[in-house]
From TrEMBL:
Residues 15-322 form the D-glutamate cyclase-like C-terminal domain. This is D-glutamate cyclase-like C-terminal domain-containing protein. It comes from the Bacteria. It holds the Pfam family GLUCM-like_C.
């Protein structure tokens, strides 16, 4: 190994350890052990390498967002996921002129637009964004809705993959269906109503040989089908809520936003480019922007900037630590 390779391997290990610190006590450390054994290497490093392997200028599908309490309103979303997805999209747009297409429920897209804009991205229709990606004149992203109908999902998935030809599909904090076909919350409540069937699109992409990367923190997200037994054994209600969709690379984290932030940090370290990483200031801005658009802290059932029940300052401090971990590579 070269000195650079040794340093990067050490940084990847530190990033893994940092984002799997199970502050919320959900059992994610057990999920990490299973995912790590399956991957055979650092999860953060594997995800960063998969994203960087995509050819410059390619199209990537990205999904996040969780319709929450849709029996009240399908416009209510959770605050874990959107900020992390925005950081990944931003890193790829700057580093590789990648054209990311964010997929979510139509009802959540206005809020997603606000988060993406706060991350420094210009949200454009697909054709306009393609021009900007090609000439590198803007860091851009497009958004598309996906059907909420089980009956329409497979045909819609086939059509969308044929039309946009993504090179990779990235998912973070996106609930997937369990073995009984239900989309469960962490409390084993049916959250399927009003939910876009994006996990079926994810699965179809995988069947077509499109590489998949997923981030999750609870066991009910897309990608967790890769470690079903660990979810069953170590997560409360795991045998009920475990999502069935696997991913080629699964990143487990104590908070899904943390996983995304760590992947972006690993990308920045590999490219020796600090522009690609999140910063404490940007993290605070994104989570406060979530308050502006009404995203909820789903653990405490209120609109605030505390994600998964952990205070805003904890998330900002985590980003500060990620920056510190990769600093030797940037030097």
């Amino acid at each position: 190994m070269s000195a650079d390779t040794d340093l990067m391997a050490a940084i990847d290990e530190r990033l893994d350890k940092l984002v799997t610190l199970d502050i919320g006590g959900r059992g994610v450390e057990h999920l990490y052990v299973a995912a790590r054994a399956r991957q055979g290497r650092s999860l953060i490093g594997a995800a960063a390498d998969a994203l960087l392997a995509v050819p410059d200028g390619s199209t990537i599908f990205v999904t996040t967002g969780s319709v929450s309490r849709a029996w009240i309103s399908t416009e209510i979303g959770e605050n874990d996921g959107p900020a992390g997805a925005a950081i990944i999209i931003r890193a790829l747009a700057i580093a590789k002129k990648v054209h990311c297409v964010l997929l979510a429920e139509e009802t959540l897209l206005p809020g997603m637009r606000a988060i993406l804009t706060s991350a420094g991205l210009t949200v454009l229709p697909y054709d306009q964004a393609a021009i900007a990606c090609k000439d590198g004149s803007l860091a851009v992203v497009s958004m598309l809705p996906f059907t909420t109908s089980d009956e329409e999902a497979l045909a819609a998935a086939t059509s969308m993959l044929e039309q946009y030809k993504p090179k990779l599909f990235f998912s973070t904090e996106r609930v997937g269906r369990a073995k009984d076909g239900v989309y469960y919350s962490m409390r084993a409540i049916d959250y399927g109503m009003g939910r876009a069937r994006i996990d079926l699109l994810f699965d179809e992409a995988s069947r077509q040989g499109i590489r998949t990367v997923a981030v999750g923190d609870g066991g009910n997200e897309i990608g967790m089908g890769a470690i079903t037994q660990a979810v069953n054994d170590h997560v409360k209600f795991g045998q009920t809520i475990a999502a069935v969709s696997p991913a080629d690379v699964l990143v487990t984290a104590a908070c899904s936003n943390w996983g995304c932030n760590a992947i972006a940090a690993a990308i920045a370290a590999r490219r020796k480019d600090p522009r690609l990483m999140n910063t404490p200031e940007l993290e605070r801005q994104l989570l406060n922007r979530g308050v502006d658009i009404g995203l909820i802290n789903s653990v405490q059932n209120v609109v605030d900037a505390n994600v998964d029940g952990m205070h805003l300052d904890t998330h900002v401090a985590l980003v500060e630590m990620l920056c510190a971990v990769i600093k030797p590579a940037l030097a």
